[in-house]
Structures are given as structure tokens and as C-alpha cells.
Queue: 3 jobs
Job 1
Amino acid sequence: MDIVNINRLAQTPLKQNIGSRIHNRKDELLSGDLTSEILELLEQRGVLLFPEIDFTDAEQVKFTKMMGQFLPEIDGEEVYNISLDNKVNRKSDYLKGSLYWHIDGTMNKRPIGAALLSSKKLATWGGNTEFCNTYAAYEALDDDTKKKIEYLRVAHSAWTTLFYYDPQPSQAKLEEMMAIGETELPLVWTHTSGRKSLVLGATAHHVIGMDWTESASLLNGLREWATSEPFRYSHEWKLGDAVMWDNTGTMHRAMPYDPDCGRLLHRTKTAGVEPIA
Ligand code: OGA
Ligand code: MN
């Protein structure tokens, strides 16, 4: 008798414009049979929640490897500790920027593709992770705004994020962040699929060639729009939850929490397949 594949992705939407809850068991997810369905849904919904799936690190790595080209950290680490505690993450300072809406890896040639967080220890207060759908936010703009922003380009830099959490940094710190470099990105990303998304976030500094007040107003207004209720999902973690997001069609941020409370997430990620263009 032929072996019939009865695995099917089972999901329910979290919100109308963003997010799906996945109901499949862990062994079904790790079988590889659902990979193309998962990737398609991820692109449509932006965020996938695997409630209390309890991935071990090895399982999380295996699952992430099914989602694309696995991208280890610069030092070769496969699983990254997301923690604001300097004893757990030596670069925890840098993570202070993650409290503000951002896209991961805007300074890279290609931003991160998909990223996955697993909850290992809950915060004592706060500590939700919020996501917004930048495809849906672009799509819902009025035609005049779409026309106005179509060809605009934006200067991005890592040092721009520094001023969010350290408004009066030491000159040495500023220069260290400036050494990471700068880049120019379109405000509207036309993906190879033809779909368009907004490119904003804490690395965005100003619109090239635009009056600086007008530029600040435009970027802030679009950020407010893209992160507003209809496009946003706020995830309240349960221990063992895993959340995967399409980093090319969303922004995300951590909500404030006690940096000493031990909140711990394990992150894995895949390389993006296309540059922002
Ligand atoms: C990240 C990130 C948010 C959080 O892992 O890239 O931004 O809630 N995390 O810790
Ligand atoms: Mn991030």
C-alpha cells in the first residue's frame, strides 16, 4: 500500500492582519512534511506561534534549518541568548535597541530572513514581544501616500538606535557604533514576489534629500501607522512557546521588563534571500 502523507498544517489566525497559531504536534513540524506550507503561511501572516511547543535547542536548530539557509551568530554560535542581563549575554547593551520597533539586520547586505524565538524563562513583569505586518500596513495606505513615498530612500545606521536608549552617549560609544557603518534603503521594498512592504525601524535616520523636519514627521507618521492596532500583534509569552517571524515583512520590539529578572529567549535565524530593494 502507498504511504499517504496525512500531515496538514492546522492553523487559526491570531489577528485579522497578522499572526497564526499553529496546532500541529512537534513531531509533525519536525518531520519536514509541512515545510513548504509553513513557509507560505509565514509569508502571508508574518508571525507564526507554536504554543508551548517546548523545542530543545537541537530541535529548534533542526526546525530553523528546514526554513532556509541557517545563519549562525558571527562567533559561530547556533543559538543566541536573548537577555538584557550582562552576565548571560555579554552584548546585552546592544539588545537595548530591541525595545524599539526594528527589522533585524538592516545593516547587512541581506536582512535576516526568518527568525525564531523560544521562551526559556518568563519575565516577572512586561516582556511581551510585539510584531507588526509591514506588508499589510503598506497595502492599506491611501493611493496619494503610496505615490508620495514610492521612490523615497532612507539613510539607516546602527548608531541611530543608540540614541533611543542612550541619548547622551560617550563619544567613544558613539564612534564604536558609527564604525558599524551606514546604508541607504528604499522606504518601500518591492520584493521579488511583487509584494511591497514598508522599511522603517530604529535604524532609519532620515529621508535622503528631504527637509529634516518633514523627514522626521514622515518617518514617525509611517511608524505610527505601521505599528497601529490593526497591523500589530503583542505576544504574551508562555514558557515553551516558540514564535517565528518573517523578518522581511514585519517589524518587532520587546516591551520593557526588569533586566535582572532572568527573562530568557533562545533565538535562531535564517539568511534572507534578497536584499532590500
Ligand atoms: C530579537 C528581538 C525581542 C524580544 O530577538 O531580535 O528583537 O522580545 N527580540 O526580546
Ligand atoms: Mn530583533
Job 2
Amino acid sequence: MHKKQILVVEDNEFNREMLKEILSDEYDVLEAENGKIGLEVLSQNKESIQLILLDVMMPVMGGFAFLDEMRKDEELSLIPVIVTTQGDGEESEIASLEHGAIDFVPKPYRAQVLKHRVASIIKLRETAAMVNQFKYDALTGLYTKEYFYRTIRQCLDDNPEKDYTILCCNIENFKLYNDTYGREDGDQLLVEVAELLRKSVGEGAICCRYNADRFLCFLDSEMERLGRKLFLKAREENHSALVKNLSVKLGVYEVVDKSIPVEQMCDRAIWVVDTIRGIYNQHLAVYDDTLRNKILREQAITDAMEEALEKEQFTVYFQPKFRLQDGKMVGAEALVRWIHPDWGFMSPGEFIPLFEKNGFISHLDEYVWEHTCAKLAEWKEKGYSLIPISVNVSRVDVYYAKLVKTFCDLIDKYKIDPKYLHLEITESAYTENPDQIIKTVDELRELGFVIEMDDFGSGYSSLNMFSQMSIDILKIDMAFIRSELSKPEERSILSDIINMAHRMELKVVAEGVETDDQKNRLQTMVCDYAQGYLYAKPMPADEFEGWMNQAK
Ligand code: C2E
Ligand code: CA
Ligand code: CA
């Protein structure tokens, strides 16, 4: 173990030797012969020096001037200083304390007394540092979550008549920022945001760092309204420092019921800020009953999902895909629907994200895959000329070890050629876990399944990733199609994307085609396939059979 470091600032060489002899068994003793040199040694070792023994009378720079310089630096001022005084110098003892020394020892030195004093002062400082460690977040200097909870509980109990608000501030895409610019810049950004927050909410607020990129503030409701305005304004003005893509979101919870646990109050502020994640241009959300109802609704869905699967409340709809050139139906996508006995028809937009969060999606997906394979078998039996059906494979499914086997078992059971089963895997799954997905997808392609990358353009993947990824079809996200096709031709990158995909021998599907104008433009871009309301909406299996009949 390293010895603790002590700095002796003393012009008399004999005294320095004495101190060294007394202390060097237990400490690593650094020496300086006047205040000026002392400051130099100190600045080079400020993290390791635990204590300073200081003489008052020295040439070049004396003890008091040394103390005054030290106090100017926030970090240095935390290092304890013991002044060594001559005999009965009461005046210089008082002056030492006034200049910020913590204690004094008289000369000549008494070895045992000196050792004890040094040891106990170092210990005291370590204990204080430990208390601070629990109280303050090391990076931002805000309070820790634990200290925050305790303090606001106290504040609520002491001021039952006052109205308070809890603010949660979240930096959107912080992880991405960290990955892109490195940890140091990430840390710097957190410090800046913490500082901005502290300044905006004012002295009276209690702020803490809740976790990585989330901060909480507890403050008087009146002040809060002003504070949040100031903060959002300051954030905009500070754009140069906070990189372009970065957005800061605020969640507000007004404390109505002071009797509920503080943790729960904070959860609500955090919860509300999470509801606006990813929503462009919305920086503020206030917790209220609508939101509470949303939570309750989510809870109800979670409670109902297992029974729904057992009782076959889920059905599969099919939405045809068409070849753009001649309008021929060339495939379809299987999309799940939930028809609940009390709630009626539910769109997957409401329950799929929830199922992805709670893991139930893998059960539902297996059900949809099986149902789709059963339909393929049935249509083959009925003599339709088959077209490939795509099923959605959630990003959660990709982590499932038996994914490949599940699909193999299905095609065996229903005796279908795997080329009729297309698998749509969302783009974000590729960016989240590239190694795993490449491995799984390679296996599936080898077995004859066709892979479509879904929602391309909604996430972060780039075209140059394709060279390493094995896919067959690129499915371009509906929102991306819409925004690209609303731009003047020369500003749209869509046509370049299609060309590049073709060069890599990928086919391209455009999703969500709703107008003739969109269709025409896609045709000029030589996009291969289209799917959308312009052609057909998702429909139940028997209706879809009608379409297959016509296509015969
Ligand atoms: P997705 O895979 O991107 O599916 C396309 C969505 O766009 C479908 O919504 C479809 O009905 C809708 N759509 C198609 N054409 C148009 C159009 O022209 N205009 C508009 N406005 N919408 C159009 P749906 O069926 O509500 O599904 C939403 C999402 O839920 C799907 O997005 C998919 O991510 C997920 N999903 C649906 N069924 C399943 C499933 O069985 N398993 C999994 N894992 N996810 C599913
Ligand atoms: Ca899809
Ligand atoms: Ca899609």
C-alpha cells in the first residue's frame, strides 16, 4: 500500500530533518524550504497530499501568505494545515487559525504528540470526505439520490402548507453522445447540464443526479414555473456547447399528496419525462391524470394478455405488397390484431411496444408465425398459387437462442418451402446487436428463408453497413418515405439509397404508400415493391383470399 503523503514547508533544514525522522515511518514526507516552493510542490501533488506542516517565518514567502494563496484554490483549501509555532507565540497561533490553519504544534517537536495529531486530523478529513461522498455526486457536485430523498422528505414534513414540485431532467440520446464523442466529452456535457439546471432553478432548489443522464430537482411550485422556463431558454441559447442533435427534456410532477413515498413522487416525474422520449420538439411534459390513466391502461393490458392468447383473441391480418412496375400482387405482410371482448379492436401500436418491454412479444410472435404457416399450408391445399408472406420478428426474438429451430420446426410441421416465409427484422435490431443478428440471419438465409430489413431510415444504420449484413430486401420506413417524397427531387436521397441497394443486389420495398403521386415518384426511382393504403389496407384472411383469387 502507498504511504500517505505529508508536505513539510519549513526553511530550517534541521527542523525538516527532525520532522522527517518522526514521520517517515508512516508517511511519505515531501519538503519545501519556503512558501513559494511549497505551493509548487502542492500543485503537482494536490491529489495525494493529505496534510501540510507549515512554518510561519520563512524567507521568500512566509506561512500566512502561503495559507492565503492556498485558500484561493477550492481544491487546495480542503487540505488541512498544521502550523508549527515558536514556543509561547499565542499571537501567531491565533493568526494561523484566522488564516485557515486547522491546528498548531509548538516547537520543539514532541514526537508522540505530533504523530497523534497528524493521524487524527488525517482521519477526520477522510471521514468528512466519506460523508461528502454519500452526499454529493462526484462528477457534477449535485446531491446523490439517497441524500436527496432524505432531504426532501424532511422538507415536506416541515412545511405541510407549502406547494412543491419535482422536476426530472433527462438528456436525450446521451448514450449515443457518449459512444460517439467519448466518455470525457460525455462527462463534460453532464457537468454543463447540471450547472445549467442549478443556475436556472435557483438557490432554494434541491437538485440531485438520479442516475447517468437524469437529474431531479425539488422546489417551491412558484419558483418551479420560472425555473423551467429559464432552463429551457438557457438550453437553447447554449446550443454551441450542447451538440446539435442533443435535446434535453423536462418532466414535471406537482406534489399533491405529500403522504406518498418520496421515491414514488420521483418515479412519476421520471415516468412523465420518459413519455416524451424521441418526440421531436416536445421538451416538457407534466404528470396528470391522463398519464395516470395511461399507466393504468398499460397495467390492464398486461393483466389481460395471457388470457387473450389462450382464448385466441389475437388474429392475423394480411396486407398485400405489389410490384411497382406492373401493379402485380407479389406478397403480403402478416400483421397482428387484438379483438378484445370488452375493449374491441386494438391496434398493435398500442400493445406491441408494451409487449416488447415486458417480453410477451415472443409468445405472441410465435403464435402469429404459426398461424401464418398454417394459412400458407391451407392456401396451398386449396390450390392458390402461393406468394410469400412476411412475418415480423421483434428485436426481442433475436436474442432468443432457439429462433432458428422454431422456424425450422414450423416449416417442417406445415410442409412449406422456406422461400414463402419472409422475415421482417427491424433496422434497430441490427444496430443494437449486430454480431448476434448477423449470426442468426446467416443461418436462416442458409436454410432458405428470405430476410427483409424493416423500418429502414427510422434509426441509425447507414448504407455502408449493408456490405457486412446479410439481407435480401430493404423495407423503407413509412415516415422516411413520406418525408423524402415531400422534398424537391434534387434534395431527396431516396433515389440514391435505392440505387445503392440495387448495386448490392437488394430489392427495395416502400412502406405506407398512400397517394398516386408517391407511387409515380417511386416508379421513376425504379423502386421494386410498394405496400400501402393506396393499394390495400391490412385485411382478414378470408378477404385476402379474394385478392389471391383475382391474382390467379
Ligand atoms: P410495421 O411492421 O412497420 O408495419 C407497417 C404498419 O403500417 C402496419 O401498422 C400497417 O397497417 C401500417 N400501414 C401500412 N400501409 C399504410 C399506409 O399506407 N398508411 C398508414 N398510415 N399506415 C400503413 P400496424 O398493423 O398497426 O402495425 C404497427 C406495427 O406493429 C408494425 O409496424 C410492427 O412493428 C408491429 N407489429 C404488427 N404486427 C406484429 C407482429 O405480429 N409481431 C411483431 N413483432 N410486431 C408487429
Ligand atoms: Ca413490418
Ligand atoms: Ca415497417
Job 3
Amino acid sequence: MGSAAPADNGTVSPRTAIAVLTSGGDAQGMNAVVRAVVRTAIGAGADVYAVYEGLQGLVDGGDRIKKADWGSVGSILHRGGTVIGTARSADFRRHDGRLRAARNLVQLGIDRIVVIGGDGSLSGADLFRSEWTGLLTELVEQGEISAEQAERHTHLMIAGVVGSIDNDMVGTDMTVGADTALHRIVEAIDALASTAASHQRSFVVEVMGRHCGYLALMSAIAGGADYVLIPENPPADGWEDDMCARLRAGRSAGRRDSIVVVAEGARDRSGQPITSQGVRDLLEARLGEDTRVTILGHVQRGGTPSAFDRWMPTLVGHAAAMEVVDARPDAEPQLIGIHNNRVHRTPLMEAVERTREIPRLIDTGDYEGAMAARGSSFTEMVRVFQGIAQVAPTDVPPGSRIAILHAGGLAPGMNTAVRAAVRFGLSRGHTMLGVQGSFQGLIDGHVSELTWGDVEGWVGVGGAELGTSRAVPSVEQYYAVSRALENHGIEALLVIGGHSAYEATYRMLQERDRYPGFQIPVICLPTTIDNNLPGSEMTIGTDTALGEIVSAVDRLKQSAMASRRCFVVEVMGRYCGYLAFMGAMSVGAERVYLHENGVHLADLTTDVAEMVASFAAGRRFHLAIRNEAASVGYSTEFLCQLFAEESGGAFDVRPMVLGHLQQGGNPSPYDRVHATRLAAYCVDWLSGQIVADKREWGFVALTDGVLSTVPLKTMPDLVDMEFRRPIDPWWLELQPIMDALATEPAE
Ligand code: ADP
């Protein structure tokens, strides 16, 4: 990557120069941060240096600190680990090591660093920053640097990005790498579950997380495990009996396998470690069943980054680069993370300190404090897991009859949502009814009770076991729908689906006073790959579809390695450009065409000129992503013909319509966790309505991390009904970042 750098010899006025490094444990997605930092800094007119082998590279200097250029970070988004290397550095812990690091930086005119690492790396970098002035004085005294050089670089400005698969940092909703690690774990649990079911075996799966139960808890939810053991929330005394009883109950209710997920730092209430081997021995002894242990280990750090671990680190990397480029010398260093899909800044050392407090709370037995420090949604998911993992208790008072039906197109995660709703509802004493075949099925009487065992195995299966349909009932059918609701004694309705589900329910709401069967509470839960529904920044299924797009484009890119080629990839989304836009951001496409922006001849003319020039300058691959409804006239075929005509034979052009593979596939871990969370909320909300004798109709919304129900009647204010998409899409604000990283600025 890059070339040898001219040293700051103290005679020229150097440009702003920043360095980027990855340090500590590696994590998938670090490359996306590096790419974003390098390209953003170049775009901002700064020089940027890649430091190899983490903080040790700073100490070593020489060819471990290399100037990076635009092309040097091309084609790294899809690679796991970190292409600039990482290390743990004993030298950097010592004063003389940091003195050498300061000298190496000043000699290159660098006084700004983006550090990507865990709390160790970030606090090490902050120590370096705080010592900087003293280090430079020492270097001047030793004659290593000139007084002018020291004058020019009076402060070191740093920004931190957390790269850690554990998701253990306060100050960001997600750390870079955690989502991909969750993918690896859930893939493994899915694989284990099928073999375990064949032999009626039990598996104990140990996952990483010495102080943080995030991976264990979320993988237990997404993998449909029976029991989970995490450091922050040790099980109550007597947990061994409880665990065995639950596993037994699961088996008699229809499970063919049992899976217990253990975080490596799990412990009991007295602080004694709970090991995977210990759990295995217990299960074999008590249940008399063949039990195997799988310790996932470094597999969790491996593999290609997920879609989320490409776009999120891209946003964060871009912001971190701007943070140091624009930093005032005395600015407090910031941790750049993500909160509710937005870049979020927290004072760096405050985040590190609060993160380090959690293991202390665990060690002193303050588990409530530790759970509180993890945040409210973590606590909520512990409660949800307990509701769905155990077979419904028999001692709860009988509840109400709640029906579930699908409407709209297929989306991965529909089954997950039904399973969670059924099990959560049963745990609250409700009778859960499944409607087969959408609204028409309801009219035709295809309604049956769903038991705990009926939804076994649905957590990770794509498609929709209950069936779905885009048909919106006509006004003439409302009477039949109402009669069906009455006939089956349905007291509340959960509609899980896409735009048609919302539209059908909204239309029925207009007429509800006329139909007795409609006098019940109704809530809609958003499942569609298009991500075009109000209230939810990410609908269930969209993360899975994005993952399918990313893996398809990765393969396309590989296929084009040996030629000079432009691909125009058409993705789904109807009139909503989310999949096209986030797909483009996640794979590093050069251009994206959206209906929201329109496709204009003048833009196409510029695009063609840029493309031709870049191939002439040596480019081998150009990727354009087009939303399926971006433009009627400027179709995918048209774009291909246009580009081919203008190529002058310098490159060839291929269309690629990804089509229905985007709707298929098993739901991603995020879609499973999110579907489970929303479904549990919806059941709770419906129960609350019944208890309070209310009959509201709404859709679930997630705003600032908090779930709520928005009245369905407000839908026309929030949705562009003609193009079926939210009026104000949050992700369109990211366009400048996409543009800044896609095109190299002209000299
Ligand atoms: P992580 O960044 O993943 O938490 P470590 O805790 O191993 O990983 O830290 C990575 C590197 O950061 C260490 O090898 C060391 O070079 C540096 N480092 C960590 N803590 C300090 C410190 N207190 N002072 C100086 N350097 C530190």
C-alpha cells in the first residue's frame, strides 16, 4: 500500500497529515474503516499514512508507516481481518517506545491519528496523546527533531473507533466486527442444530465474551437455543435444576435437540466460572444424553465481513477521519461509534472508563449495575429470551385469543417473528392462532391454534410457513373478514408483513366502525426486504437481502478479475432505494441509481465520461448499482447499451439482475433478533390493549432505540402512498459519504 513518504525536514510547510492504524485483537470490518479514513482524508486534502502492525508500527517507523493513496485501499471491503496488520505491542507500553513513535510521526509531519482497536489500544493511544508535548520536548533536547518541527506539531489529535467482535464498548451500539462474529456463531449453531436434531443430541456451544454476554445472548436468540449463560446476568442459585428441567420440557414439547450457549466468561451468582465442559458433564449426568461441546474460538473472528460490518464501519471511518482532519489542537479526543444508525461521538476516555467499569461491577457481584451499563435493549432481550426459550408455564392465568397473519411479499424473518410471537404469547397465557394464507385464508377459515412445538425450527428458516399474499381485501370482503374474526373468537390481531399488510389494515381502519369483528386491537409488524415502511428504520428482512446482494457482488467482482468490465447490478426495493444505496455503500460501488434522486441524461453523460477516463487510466472494474424502479426509460438494459457503446472497446459491460434470490435465504442474525424483539413487543402491546379494554390500531415503531406503537391513521402523513416509501428516508442523508468514497477527487 502506497509509497515512501517525503520527510518533514522542517523547511516546507507540510499539509495536514493523518495516520490510521488497527491495533489489538483483529475484527472483521476494520478494512472498511481504513478505506473510509484513507479516502475521506484524501478527499479533504490531507496526506494519509497507513501504519502497519498497529501501535508497534508507530514505534518501528520506516516502512511500517506508508503513505496511502486512493487505489491502495481498493478491493479491501470484503476482506476479513485487517490488511494493514495488527499487533500487541510491548514496546508501546514503555516510555522509550512511545518516544520513538513520536519521533517517527513528527518526522513525517503527522500529528493526527485514527486508532481502530479495543479499549487497550484506545487508552494506550490516549496516554500517548497526553504525553505528546513532553515527548517532543525530549526529542528536541536529544536533537532527534528540530524546535520548528516541535512548534508545528504542538498537539497530537486522535479519534478512536472500536474494532472488537465482543460488542463490549460503552459509547457505541455496535463495535466493528460484532455483527460478523454473530454471523459466524449463528451459522455454526444452525449447522449444529441440524446434526443434533438427527441424533437427538445436546450441544453446548462456547462463544467469545470474557466480560460481555452480547454474542452469547444474541446468538442464543438467533439460533433458537434453550439456555444461555452470560457474565453480566448469572443464573439464580439452583440454575442446574432449572436448566435441566427446561431442556426436558423442550424435548417433550417437540424439540429434537438441545442447545446451551455459554459465554467464555459465564459465572454463577457466587462468581464461580461456569465452563462449557461443566455444563456438558451436568447434562450428561442429569439427562443421560449424549452431549457434545463446541468451542467456536477464532472462527468467530474469521470470514468475510457482513453487510452491516461494511456500511457501519464506512460511516464511522468517514466521521473519524473528519474528526481528526478538523480537530482543534486542544480538542478532547472522541470515540466515534454508532447509535441508532447515526454516527455518535463520546469522549474517548469516558467511554473507556465506563467500559472498564463493567468487569469491575461483575467482579464485585453488582450484576444489576452490569446489566444497566449494557443498556436497556440488552436487558429487554434477556427478558424476551426467557419468554420464548422455555416451554409455556402451566401456572399462568389464561389470556386472550391472539391471531397472527401475513400479508405482502415474502421477507426472510417472517417465520422468526411468528415463532417469537407464538412462544412469547404462550408464555403470557394467551392462545395463539395462526392464519394460513393471509386475509383470504382468514375468510376461508384457515385458522388453527399454534403450540410451542408447532413453531419449533422456524427461527432461522426463510420463507413464510403461514403463507403470504400481496392481495389487499376489497371493501366487499370486509364483512367476511369481520365474521371470520368473530367466528374464531379473535380478540387481537398481529399482522406481520410488508406494504400490502399496512395498506390493507389502514383501509380496513377507515371502515372499522361498520364491522363488529373489527372492534379489537390490531398491530402491524414490518417485514419486507424493501425497507419502505414507516416507523422502522430497518424492516425485518432487509439486512438479509443486503447480505445476499453483498455476497453476490463479491462473487461478481471475483469473476471479473481477469477482464476489464463494467457491471450494472439491478437490485430490488420497488421505489425505495435503500437496498441499492446500502448495497452500493457495502460493496464500494462507483455509482448508484435511485428513483429518489431520479436518473438524468446529464448525470449519465458525466458517468460515462468518468468511466471511460478511469478505464483508460488503468481501472479494471466499474460497478454501478441500479434500483429496479430507478427510471422507466433508463433501464438496466439501456444503461448497459449506453456504456457499451461509449466504451470504445476498452471494457465490456454486463447486466446482472439479482432478482428473487434477495427475498430468499435464511434470515440473518440481526433480522432474527430484531424480529424476535418486535414480535415480543407486539404481543405485550396487544395484551395491554385487551387488559385496558382498548381497541387501537397501530404499527410498531423503533425510534431512538425505544419501541412504541404509532397510530395507523397517521400512515398517510409518513408515507408517500404513490411510491410506497417513507417520506423522509434517513439513509438518503448518507449520500455525501457514498459520493466522497466512490470517486477519487481530481488533482
Ligand atoms: P485491545 O486494543 O484489543 O483492547 P490490548 O489491550 O491488548 O488490545 O491493547 C493493544 C495494545 O495497546 C497493547 O499491546 C499496547 O501496545 C497498547 N496499550 C494498551 N494499554 C496500554 C497502556 N496502558 N499504555 C500504553 N499502551 C497500551
